[in-house]
Amino acid sequence: MQAGREVPTTSKCVPLSLPKGSERLCELCQGKAHLQCRKCRVTFYCGAEHQQADWLGIHERICELLVPIRTSTPLHPKHADYVELQLKKVELAEICRSVAQSKLSERKHLEALPAAQCCLRCSVDIYGPSTVQLVPAYLLLAEANMGLGNLALVGELLCQAEWAVLKSPDCGHSVHQQLHRSLGRLHAATGNLEEALVNFGNDIYFSSKEHGLDSPVTCAGYFLMADVFAKQGKLPIVRSLYSQMAHTWHSHLTQLLKAHGQNVHYPNPLLKASHDKGQRLEMDEMLRTMLAFQQNDPRNDPTQVALVSHCLAMLWFLGGDLEKALGFGGAALQASQLIPNYDLTEPIQGLLQLVHDLHTDPRPGSD
């Protein structure tokens, strides 16, 4: 729970009193509701625990927006107010999607559940059941449950997503890529490593079609595939994949660092993503895993250690954490000094100088 943030107790709810024979369902578990949100009065809960979880997860953001949607009577598509109501539903679904994605990127799986559930319900209301437009919501809900270890439910959600995609063969590369990545993660978690590799291979294929072979998005697919090969003990393949990924990320981060130094807006949205907290944490986790592998590898290749450490130093310099940038930069320099005439020694020294300069004379407004 975040310090200083108000999380309502049951004082923000009222006991539910309904006519005999009527029933309301809990927003989160669909069980019988006993509480009603005091503010919007269109949202119901089985108890205080689910009310608080929903408030923290999404309800605080959408409480007032729910009122016109849930109190409206069914409208014919030709009705004058139908389009306006649909637009409000689309807005609600997008808010829920954005909040769920943000929380998932920060590994807050439990907090992401209410937003993902609401996103799916809104999407069904807008587009109908079993349509391909529901796939992003299915995947968000599957990822949240994956993080919580609810693998059986993840399997059910991905089956529904896969069925929707199979019925819409012309859906975009991005949808296929995200679905195969989720399926690969599920198979890896359940020990079906060969099936995981098939899905991660498809993930990389569709990602390269959508973003390019050397994009950070595609690199994440390579990382997941390398993790499976590591579990199979196929270390030469892991080394090869990690090397390819390290060079790709190094190229992107070098361009970002150059743009940062020139104080210009870099046009590639995939590079801008490294400034996002969730994306930065995900990249940090992958690069740290690669660095640990290189440091523990019997082959002990200082070139790869220097390359990955330099990536981490640039990542955290751009993220504004000078201590981490200094630590990884020092490790990169130490490794680079073991390599005669190494071409990255000068750039590493230049980055360390930037960090030292900011330590002694911080610039106003620096991130």
Automatic annotation (TrEMBL):
Entry-linked Pfam families: zf-MYND
Domain MYND-type residues, every copy: 26-63
Keywords assigned: Metal-binding, Zinc, Zinc-finger
Entry superkingdom: Eukaryota
A GO molecular-function descriptor: zinc ion binding
Keyword Zinc on entry: yes
PROSITE patterns per the UniProt record, alphabetical: ZF_MYND_1 (PS01360), ZF_MYND_2 (PS50865)
Transmembrane segments: none
Stated name of the protein: Zinc finger MYND domain-containing protein 12 isoform X1
